[in-house]
Specification:
single chain, MetI-like fold, 0% strand, globular
Length: 275
């Protein structure tokens, strides 16, 4: 069927709307002047591209000390939140899939609630909890907050994977003499691994990108990368370094997605080989 001119134009506009801002972030990471935020000098001449912001990042320039500290803090919290969320989310999804009762219905409702609650309400609720428990806000409160909302996304992702899971495989493993732990690690976990990886990637992205909830539960000296960037966007002359770091994060995320695709493809090939 021949495509109409209107559909092609609409497709181009949608793609431009989605990807041109990302392309601009990459381009502005090579801007030479962080004060004027322009590739042209006062006379209108093109000054070219500069890699000095990447050099400042990799050499640990003192001008970017606070920015890099917030960046590594975000990576640490996102990594830990992802690992904890995957562990808790996998067990919760298995429980929801295996047992059906009123208690599990309540469990499902509690897991689903953070997905529909506004971020500002979650942030205020967690802040009130920490204040009531006399807990000083800082690294651990941010980590707890991120795990709180990341677990729900991991559970829902793994539950979607469990919809196609054949429970007869577990029964067959038990009939062949395998124990519960052996069955889980050698039968169930390899099949669920693509879903766990997908949920982990989603949790990592949500954690490293969060601003609203983190702004309620962070303390003095514990600004994450998004909260620090939001405070420096209008007045900092080092703003191109943010674009450079964002580009590196984009490449890192693409690498993680590619790795998850390889894992999923490997699992599919193993399944075909066993068939």
């Amino acid at each position: 069927m021949k495509r109409s001119f209107f559909s092609v134009v609409m497709l181009a506009l949608v793609l431009a709307f989605l990807y041109v801002p990302i392309l601009l972030v990459v381009v502005y990471g090579f801007i030479p002047n962080g004060i004027s935020m322009s590739f042209f000098d006062s006379t209108g001449h093109f000054t070219g591209f500069s890699g000095k912001w990447y050099a400042m990042i990799f050499t640990g320039n003192m001008r970017l000390g606070a920015l890099m500290q917030s960046f590594w803090l975000s990576l640490t919290i996102a990594g830990l939140a992802t690992l904890i969320s995957c562990a808790i989310g996998t067990t919760a999804a298995l429980a929801l899939h295996k047992w059906k009762s009123r208690l599990q219905s309540l469990h499902h409702a509690l897991v689903y609630t953070p997905l529909i609650m506004p971020d500002i309400l979650i942030g205020i609720s967690l802040l009130m909890l920490f204040v009531a428990c006399s807990v000083d806000c800082g690294f651990w409160t941010i980590l707890i907050a991120h795990v709180t909302f990341c677990v729900s996304y991991v559970v829902m992702t793994i539950l979607a994977r469990l919809q196609d899971f054949d429970d007869r495989l577990i029964e067959a493993a038990y009939d062949l003499g395998a124990g519960p732990w052996y069955t889980f690690f050698h039968v169930q976990l390899p099949i669920l691994l693509p879903g766990i990886v997908a949920g982990g990637l989603l949790a990592f992205t949500l954690s490293i990108d969060d601003v609203v909830i983190t702004s309620f539960v962070n303390g003095a000296g514990t600004n994450t990368f998004p909260t620090y960037v939001s405070s420096m966007t209008k007045h900092s002359r080092n703003l191109p370094a943010v674009f450079a770091l964002s580009t590196l994060m984009l490449l890192f995320t693409c690498a993680l997605v590619g790795l998850s695709k390889l894992i999923a493809r490997g699992q599919q090939q193993k399944a075909k080989g066993k068939q």
